[in-house]
From TrEMBL, chains A, B, C:
It comes from Rubritalea profundi. Belongs to the transferase hexapeptide repeat family. LpxD subfamily. Its EC number is 2.3.1.191. Pathway: Bacterial outer membrane biogenesis; LPS lipid A biosynthesis. The active site is at 242 (proton acceptor). Keywords: Acyltransferase, Lipid A biosynthesis, Lipid biosynthesis, Lipid metabolism, Repeat, Transferase. This is UDP-3-O-acylglucosamine N-acyltransferase.
Amino acid sequence: MQLTLEEIIELTSGKLVSEGSASSFNGLASLKEACAADVSFLGNEKYYADYLATNAGVVLVPSIVDEFPGGSVAIEVDNPSFAFGLIVKKLASKQRVFKAGVHPAAWVADDVVFNADKVSIKAGAVVESGSRIGDGTEINSNVSIGEGVVIGEECVLHSNVVVREFCELEDRVILQPSCVIGSDGYGYELVDGRHTKVDQVGIVVLQNDVEIGANTAIDRARFGRTIIGEGTKVDNLVQVAHNVVTGKHCLIVAQTGLAGSCELGNYVTVAAQAGVAGHIKVGDQAVLLGRTGAAKNLAGAQMYMGMPARPVKEEQKKLASLARLPKLLKEFKELKKSLNDAG
Amino acid sequence: MQLTLEEIIELTSGKLVSEGSASSFNGLASLKEACAADVSFLGNEKYYADYLATNAGVVLVPSIVDEFPGGSVAIEVDNPSFAFGLIVKKLASKQRVFKAGVHPAAWVADDVVFNADKVSIKAGAVVESGSRIGDGTEINSNVSIGEGVVIGEECVLHSNVVVREFCELEDRVILQPSCVIGSDGYGYELVDGRHTKVDQVGIVVLQNDVEIGANTAIDRARFGRTIIGEGTKVDNLVQVAHNVVTGKHCLIVAQTGLAGSCELGNYVTVAAQAGVAGHIKVGDQAVLLGRTGAAKNLAGAQMYMGMPARPVKEEQKKLASLARLPKLLKEFKELKKSLNDAG
Amino acid sequence: MQLTLEEIIELTSGKLVSEGSASSFNGLASLKEACAADVSFLGNEKYYADYLATNAGVVLVPSIVDEFPGGSVAIEVDNPSFAFGLIVKKLASKQRVFKAGVHPAAWVADDVVFNADKVSIKAGAVVESGSRIGDGTEINSNVSIGEGVVIGEECVLHSNVVVREFCELEDRVILQPSCVIGSDGYGYELVDGRHTKVDQVGIVVLQNDVEIGANTAIDRARFGRTIIGEGTKVDNLVQVAHNVVTGKHCLIVAQTGLAGSCELGNYVTVAAQAGVAGHIKVGDQAVLLGRTGAAKNLAGAQMYMGMPARPVKEEQKKLASLARLPKLLKEFKELKKSLNDAG
């Protein structure tokens, strides 16, 4: 597969802003590793030095750039990362291909409702009684689907995923390998000195276009539903406890924990290694920076950091004053001494 | 399945404290979502506004409440959450059912000791040579049991769990999906500039009534045993390193890490995202709040927070003084200025 | 299996420094649990009290020790932990054994390139089309290998590991249970209010002698390669995002997160629960203590702590001054009062 310069310009709706020597391209590479046959892009100012020194055949650049590397064609586009994605779709040779059919080494219960001509179920996958699978869905190797699970259309369940009994996936849901949907919530009552398990009889619902990362765990509700809202994307190794409800189009980044019954609004971003306490609410479009620990309700449309979470400016002021503390201690000591000497 | 008001009162040992219109019930719901056919409960004061506005047919309430929602029956009970659990057991229609037998798509080595009429082994499960499985135990789909593993009675191993060679589970142990028991401890010696693996030849022992969360990892001992004590409950995504020993009836909440050879006493609580350093001891009934980082031995029967861990009062005093720092900096500057002006 | 005192001295290149009563040994135990038939070692000064009270038959000790427990033989060695490892190799009775052959309940695609006499593939394992497996490699139960994966010689893939399509493992790579290699990177572009998935068409490369912990996730590159350098050891529950590159012989401890496109030099240590932000560089031999949060490039050969990461001495000074803050607040108040009274 090859793309000409003209094809790249058309594909990206771009504008030629600097000429170079190459005219056809078959590779994809970072600015640092690219050679004359490769397409690359400048998507982050941290790579500006790499950009000026690149050997890429063609580079997709944002409009603010006015220097160009010698030898490379430069094409101006609105969003270099997105435009590069369009090239990737054309050039990437090694892509996953959907092949319908049930592998002989899969095991599917007799009463599972699905169209074997339109669903892919791979070796080692297990689908238990009473489940339903929509057309265009791919169940990869060693996936375990419990009883009565409902899976929509065009979902991808990667290898070794577990979806426990009665949980529901709407359409175009993607589950990265080894994530767990519907584990029991962590609930116990202390009875005669022993932690006694509280039955967890609810389910998990993953709405349309949700994606869940590798080795993430989403607990079923104690009763009712744990809900991940439409279009929300959850990264790897995230903990979502029982009865959590996230709004639509949230981003929940790696290693974050959402405690039991917390509620996120729409378009909330929770960056990596953050935590949201149980039973609290986070408003629409709130942004929690990395490691933020939210212990009380947080209003929407604001950016928070720290533990306990504070608006970013407030927390930064606190951190700045802390940096001045050693000097303050020294000056205070001197002042006391000079007053004593004077007195 | 339906329950009458009289049945609910008897089941929960409750007392009718406010009358309502409905007299039989078949559903379970939160205060906010409940309708006239549903049972609900007030288990957390955060939901008090939802309680007063609920449409639930019947609500289980604690004795301290003296207002009641119009239209709902209110029943006073000692512990509303626990009492609600008793109703859940009766009403939940979709519950897991134990079915004995070895699925034809499971693979069990010839010499495994178990009673096929009293054990459930599902499709895709693998049990290797020399293992033993007690009566009433359930091994779900795609579980991997290594060589020489000993599993007690009435255990539940959910799908895709791994128990590596020679590890031991006592009775009524529950393993949530995709947790790992008996991975190698993280141990290396630097030899000629290379990290050389230290053999990890010990095992993991999970005592009676232990529960382990989804995607949690518990490393085998270097030699000897990593032990999770009787009745201890470990949440999702927890790291338990080699040679850790926890006491009985501990609670280890999500995303916490217990480093190598640390020891917890009995009834220790470690809240979410906390960490306990290697080779230290935490006393009986100690409580580590979320994100606490314990770097030195901690005495029992106290509550800790912060990193390094401090008694809660001490740490809160530090945080409170930090909040006053910006004002102090300002006042100190003014004081110096006024002294200079005066001088 | 038994070892005599002479055999132990020879095996460890040790020197007899204190005589005892036992002369042959068949067990391995910690100082606290050992009896007269056991070998033990003093590897950490925290166990010095246990050492003096031990009932071990023989103890391996470092040269700095000049007290010896009564009744035990003491043998001085350069590195007691390493020397003990040599004894473990001899005495541990329950060790994993490599058995070549493809289990009938495994499923391997017809075109997979491997020597069935020199590779072990266990029940429930799935190897998809186009993959290659080197001699001496062990693929355990319920492992999922995607299409076109390349695996070198003498690797061990423990149960329920997932290696997604086209990823590459060099020689002697060890994957602990349920880790995921090659999950999609977390990349989205916001288009018309929806997070639209950015194709992740790169791979993961694990170089020679890499070990990856249980339930760790390593994302494939957006394009190009996510690389874990030769000899690097990654612990359990670690997140490695797309396009991360680690140098050789790094240690990445449990529950740490490495964000997208960050680069670690050689011999970098990142302790538990730390985080490294996206697109930054950490120099050779840098050490990040537990929970460190690195947000900017960090120079090599230094030790860092805190969030944001600072050189250890600087951060400790800040923490020390914070501890003096409550007293400062009090003294400042007194000073102001005394000046007012005087004025």
